[in-house]
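#lab-general

N.A. 3:47 PM
ok so I finally got the sequence cleaned up, no stray characters, all 215 residues accounted for. can someone with queue access submit it? mine expired

B.Y. 3:52 PM
send it over

N.A. 3:53 PM
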Amino acid sequence: MRLPVDKPLFITFEGMDGSGKTTQMHRLAARLRSMGRTVLETAEPGGPPIAMKIRRILLDAANQELSPVAEILLYFASRAQNVDEWISPALSRGEIVLSDRFTDSSLVYQGGGRNLGADAVAALERIACRGLKPDLTLLVDVDAESSLARARARNAAAPHCETRLDDESIEFHRAVWHAYHALAAAEPKRVKIVDGRTDIDTIERAVWQIVSAYV
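B.Y. 4:20 PM
back already:
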């Protein structure tokens, strides 16, 4: 059953780099638009121009000296701008918002991978997001080794400077993977795991099987 056109919906895509989540978000957006829904697509870090400037600092491979605390503060600064300028206004207009990453990424990468803990993430979330949480989170799941191999192959094929996190050790990426699965176990109603090891069309069908219950 279709929701009323003015019913807002906030869906996030999470997963390791190279999982294919960005492709799946774009495909879902196209499907929803074909159904007549207005869709805002955004990504984190990033979104509005100010947040994109913060993104360049966070992901630039030249900024290896960035401390874990400075890193998490910058992620939430970008997120606050995204929420205030793009996400909340779109939801207030009754649109569907799709975001490539949100606070869950901070929980697993900085809270887990950087060992800053869930309490630090929760404290910053209260300031930056003021209670805004996704209605549904799709975790496109691939293991740490496959994620790193895909990300590095992508970077080699199209060289760019946004590789700072890709340059982290395999131990860091394994910690992130385990943190993602702990999150999914803790919040099974919101966080749905999609097998990212299959082909793109199969993943798209699995995503739609979940999302169709919401739209």
